[in-house]
Structure formats: C-alpha cells, structure tokens
Amino acid sequence: MSRFHSYLNSASSILQVYKGEQPFHIFLKSFFKENKKYGSRDRKIVSNLCYCYFRLGLALQELPIADRLLAGLFLCEKNPNEFFSELHPDWNELIALPADQKAAMPGFSLQETFPFAEELSNDISIHDYSASMIIQPDLFIRVRPGYENNVKQKLQEAHVQFNQVTHSCLRLENSIQVDKTLQLNKEVVVQDYNSQRISEFLIMVENYLRSKSNITSERSPVLKIYDCCAASGGKSILAYDYLKPIELTVSDVRRSILRNLKERLSTAGIENYSAFVKDLTLANSKPDTQNLAPESFDLVICDAPCTGSGTWSRTPEQLYYFKQQKIGHYQDLQLSIVRNVAPLVKKGGFLLYITCSVFRKENEDIVNYSREEAGLELEKMEMLKGYDKKADTLFAALLTKK
C-alpha cells in the first residue's frame, strides 16, 4: 500500500467516526492525541484531506469516502499535487482550472455543494457563495485604539506578514498564532473583517444620539448599551472602543460563557458593567441579578444565535451536517429574542440586529417582523458580504423606536 493510500485510509477512518457533534478541529485534536503514530506532517495531510472532503458540501455523497476525498482535494487545490501524480495524473494537469470547470471532472456542478439557494437572502450570489466554500478565509484582527503603531512594530519585528485593510483592520495568514506576538483583547481583538464593519452602524448611532442631545463638546453622552447575546464579548468591546463613555450591560444564556466573557472584558480594560444569565427566548425569564426595565437602553445589540451559514467556509463540516429545518428553529429563537428586547429600547433609541447567516428567514424576515410587530423603524440594513473577500458574511440591521 502506498503512503497516499494510507493517508486516504486514515482520513476515511476519521470521517467514519466523526458525526458532527463538536467542531471538527476539536475532534481532530483529541483524535491525534489518542493516536500518537501520526507525525506533524501526517496530521497536516490527513487534516487537509478531511477538510477538503467537507468543502464538497452536499455534492457527490453517493461516492465512496476515498473517492470523495480525492474529489474534494482536486477542487480545493490550485497547484499540482503528489496525490494526483500517484493516483490521478490526469487531474494534476487540470488543477489550475477555475473551480466550475474542475467540478465537472468528478461530475458535479459547484452549486450542488450548497443546495439551499431558495433560502438565501436577497443580495447573496449563490454562485459566489458556493465557490467560497472551497476557500479557507483569512485571519483578521482589529487593532484597538492607541495601539496602532505598537502592533505593527511588533508584527514587523516578528517577521509576520500582514496587509492593512483599514486603519484598524489587519489581514494575516490563517496559520499565524497571533497570541505569540500580540496581547489579545488588550492590543488587538481577533475579529473578522465584516464583524469589524459593525462599527459603521455604531457610528450611526453615536452621530444621531449626539446630535439629538445638542451637546457641543467633543465628548459624547454616556450611552446605556445592552449586549443581550454577548457570547465572547466581541461586540461589547467594539461598542466600548467606538462609543465610550458607555454604561454596559451584558447577558448570555450560558453561565460558562459569561465567566469567559468577564475574563476577556477585564483584559480589555472594561471593568464597570452589569452581567447576568438570561434566556431571552423565554417570555417570563428573569436574570440572576436584576430585572430589565422597559425603555431603559439607548442601544440594544442583538448578535442573535443563528445557523452560522455565513461562516461555513471556516467550518465546512457545519454545512455537511446541516439540516434545512434548522433554519426555522433559529428563526423561532430570533423572533422570541427580538420580541423580548424591543420593549427595552428607549424612544429614540436603537436595536442593532446581527447574524452571521445568509438565510432570508434569519435576516430580512426578522427585520420585517421588527417593523410590523415590534414597532421599530428601519434605518439601515446591509448584507456584509465576505465570500468575495476571504472573510465571513454577516447581516446587520439598525432599527429605531420613534
């Protein structure tokens, strides 16, 4: 048996055991820890084969695993590959062709990788989105205010290549271990390009509220902000950096997540805030530490739980195991959350609704509900496309209560 067949057999064995219950990178780490026969090069090759398999999405599922592994590798690779020199020499000659043409070699169309086109939001290109599934996105970091020169100097001294996308956004290769060079959450935040673009919506909020307050100084009024699905706190830190001074309240349904959030906010220099556990999908859920008064916040940030379909090029295993009925499940959660947080927005205040989904039911349909049933008016709505930028795709809508 050649070493190439051995790699295919190893990847096939892994894929027969993995059932999608946890992120694949976590599963792989555990698998290789228990199976120490794999050297670093072996782990890299086998891992890449598995990810190429998942990047086929739902295409070619009728093929044996080994054939599907080769088809995925052929679709994802851009340069001649030693696998094909040994096992499929004719494919090596075609490796540089566009993805559409390469897909035809194993016998499928690129769109078959993602068979949910009828569910997409209005501005999403099914062709471009499907094509993005075969490409690993880049790593993006946001440089926090005051650290711009220091961060770039540290990266240059460490010989880490980067591309400056905006004043505060840097693009790096995905393999870079940022924490070895920079202080995470203090100097920089690991945050996708389009997540950073949420700052555009925050600036709209600040400009409106500042003009409304008739304050002539450069200092903004203290804004009361509630990050209601705070998770790891990325949007809270973003709001702090762009809108401070703020009075911050955060909640999440998971107590363990809040513990991690508190540690992250502390590193970011954010000490004065309220935090509690709350399940906003329940009509009468009460937090551990306080009740939320109606019309008490200038801004409610709702980075809602969702399918995560805008990030599947980073985690292609989620597309492979995705069931279409999950869209309705998440829509129900999102409707419940918006129904519960809309009353908390002050008159003249804002609800910023965010998902990392490409599905209409999680995006435009929730905005329509917010306007028709929750008494909010739409100020701005945008699909922040990342599939043509090697970044994630997000949806954001800013609504106000008149």
Class by helix and strand content?
A: alpha/beta
| Largest β-sheet summary | 7 strands, mixed
Strand order of the largest sheet: 7-6-5-8-9-11-10
Rounded Rg: 23 Å
**What global shape is seen?**
globular
Helix/strand layout:
Elements: H1 3-17, H2 24-34, H3 40-55, H4 65-76, H5 82-87, H6 89-92, H7 99-104, H8 126-132, E1 139-143, H9 148-157, E2 163-164, E3 169-172, E4 188-190, H10 193-196, H11 198-213, E5 223-227, H12 234-243, E6 246-252, H13 255-267, E7 273-277, E8 297-303, H14 316-320, H15 326-341, E9 345-355, H16 364-372, E10 377-384, E11 394-400
Parallel strand pairs: 5-6, 5-8, 6-7, 8-9
Antiparallel strand pairs: 1-3, 1-4, 2-3, 9-11, 10-11
Helix pairs in contact: 1-3, 1-4, 3-4, 11-12
Search tags:
Rossmann fold, 402 residues, single chain, Alpha-Beta Plaits, 3 domains, 40% helix, alpha/beta, seven-stranded mixed beta sheet
Word description of this protein:
- It contains 16 helices and eleven strands.
- The protein is α/β, with parallel strands linked by helices and 402 residues long.
- The chain has three domains: 3-110; 139-190, Alpha-Beta Plaits; 193-400, Vaccinia Virus protein VP39 (Rossmann fold, 3-Layer(aba) Sandwich), CATH 3.40.50.150.
- It has a seven-stranded mixed β-sheet, sandwiched between helices. A four-stranded antiparallel β-sheet has the order 2-3-1-4, with no helix packed on it.
- Strand 6 (246-252), helix 13 and strand 7 form a beta-alpha-beta unit.
- Helix 1 (3-17) crosses helix 4 and helix 3 packs across helix 4 (65-76).
- The N and C termini lie far apart (71 Å).
- The model has no long low-confidence stretch (mean pLDDT 93).
